[in-house]
Amino acid sequence: MPRDELPDADPLVLARHDGPVAVLELNRPAKRNAISLAMVRELDRCIAMLPDDVKAVVLAARGEHFSAGLDLSEIPEMSAAQGVHHSHAWYQVFERLQFGRVPVVAVLQGAVVGGGLELAACAHVRVAESSAYFGLPEGQRGIFLGGGGSVRVSKLIGFSRVTEMMLTGHVYDADEAFRIGLTHYTVAPGEGLAKALALAQRIAGNAPMSNFAIMRALPLIAEQPMSHGLMTESLIAAISQSEPEAKERVEAFLAKRAAKVQRS
User: Fold this and answer.
1) Are residues 191 and 250 in the same domain?
2) pTM for this structure?
């Protein structure tokens, strides 16, 4: 067992929260935050233990890199059956992150590669520092995506770009990643966490039912035929606007007590 996964070692994921925003940080900087199964399980534990008053999460990482990907040292001894179970262990935790109780804002710096990109794709908002670079080197490693990337990353940028990344080893820098839709914001080095915290605070101020609908209904509608999607939208809209908090917010706007939409 690697030293940093022994019971008395530093936690693989650090958790803290201040008011409505929790910060979860990958904490394996000496390994470029390579994602081990133990780290995935620790991330799951941190998600499960989020206090009820937390309304948004910032997912970050200690050190120069968000994550250089899967800890390849776990692969050589796996049987095919163990490999399937390994992937599904990732799937279960990543689904809780993407479709959990609260929205997630990711801060990305340095390597966002392989499994690291698969993890980043679970976030609802992605902030990249200009040092970030994005790759899927599985083709060069003789393996295939196993943490949900063939689904999540393909939904972000299309399977054709994912195919090209995996076949050629093409690495995108932060500006290119923004242009193709991998990220939503690009900031200077060292400014990612502050930007993510500001966004998370804004998100935490939304009505909980609205955030839930945005996280859960939009992906569902995107997969549905138009007629089904419109029906789903109408039902979610009716449920959301019937919430007491929604009624209070609409009344505040009509009474000119709420701010109007402004350009950022």
Assistant:
1) no
2) 0.92
Catalytic member of 138, 176, 223, 233: 138
φ and ψ at residue 19, rounded to 5 degrees = 70, -130
Residue 52 CB neighbour total at 10 angstroms? 6
E strands, the chain, in order: 13-18, 21-26, 56-61, 104-108, 111-113, 125-129, 133-135, 172-173, 185-187
Residue 177 domain-assigned (yes or no): yes
- Non-local CB neighbours of 162 within 8 Å, separated by 6+ positions: 136, 149, 150, 153, 154
Q: Is 243 a catalytic residue?
A: no
Q: Which of 204, 227, 244 is the last residue of a domain?
A: 204
Residues 247 and 138 in one domain: no
Q: Are residues 156 and 176 in the same domain?
A: yes
64 is known as an active-site residue: no
pLDDT-derived band at 248, boundaries 50, 70, 90: confident
Q: pLDDT tens digits for 217-231? A: 999 999 999 999 999
b/e map of 115-140 (b: 16 or more CB within 10 Å)? bbbbbbbbbbbbbbbbbbbbbbbbee
| 203 phi and psi angles, rounded to 5 deg | -60, -40
- For residue 25, list its beta bridge partners: 14, 60
Same domain, 172 and 212: no
Catalytic-labelled residue, pool 25, 42, 118, 129: 118
Distance between CA atoms of residues 12 and 87, nearest Å: 19
